[in-house]
């Protein structure tokens, strides 16, 4: 157990890297989203491309913030469950 904590602290464990890597639906939807984005950019006049790219970057940043919160809350809940199981 102590090795997991140390490795997590040292940055040797990246739980988020494993999320979705084997999920075919996530891969399919990611490809569709990227293809759709590329098609949209190709159709837009040049002066619209920058705002659309900025919108995508902001949307991605917001999603990352949400996912970080989800992970944090899930981790806390898991720890509380483990603590309750040990103390019961």
What is the structure about, briefly put?
The chain is mostly helical and about 90 residues long.
SSE blueprint:
Blueprint: H1 2-9, H2 24-43, H3 46-87
Structure description:
With about 90 residues, this protein is mainly alpha-helical. The protein folds into 2 domains: about 1-45, no CATH class; about 45-88. Helix content is about 80%, strand content about 0%. The chain has 3 helices and no strands. The longest helix has about 40 residues, at about 45-85. The two termini are about 20 Å apart.
Give me some keywords for this one.
88 residues, 80% helix, 2 domains, 0% strand
Which oligomeric state applies?
single chain
Helix content: over 70%
Mind describing the biggest β-sheet? none
The poorly predicted ranges are: none
Question: How many extended strands?
Answer: 0
Cα shape: elongated
- Helical region count? 3
Determine the structural class based on helices, strands and strand pairing. Answer: mainly alpha
Q: Tell me the strand percentage band.
A: under 5%
* Spatial gap, N to C terminus: 20 Å
């Amino acid at each position: 157990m102590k090795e997991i904590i140390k490795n997590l602290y040292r940055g040797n464990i990246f739980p988020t890297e494993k999320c979705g890597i084997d999920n075919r639906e996530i891969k399919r939807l990611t490809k569709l989203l990227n293809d759709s984005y590329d098609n949209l950019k190709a159709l837009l006049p040049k002066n619209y491309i920058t705002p659309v790219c900025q919108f995508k970057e902001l949307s991605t940043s917001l999603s990352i913030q949400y996912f970080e919160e989800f992970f944090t809350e899930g981790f806390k809940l898991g720890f509380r469950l483990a603590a309750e199981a040990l103390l019961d």
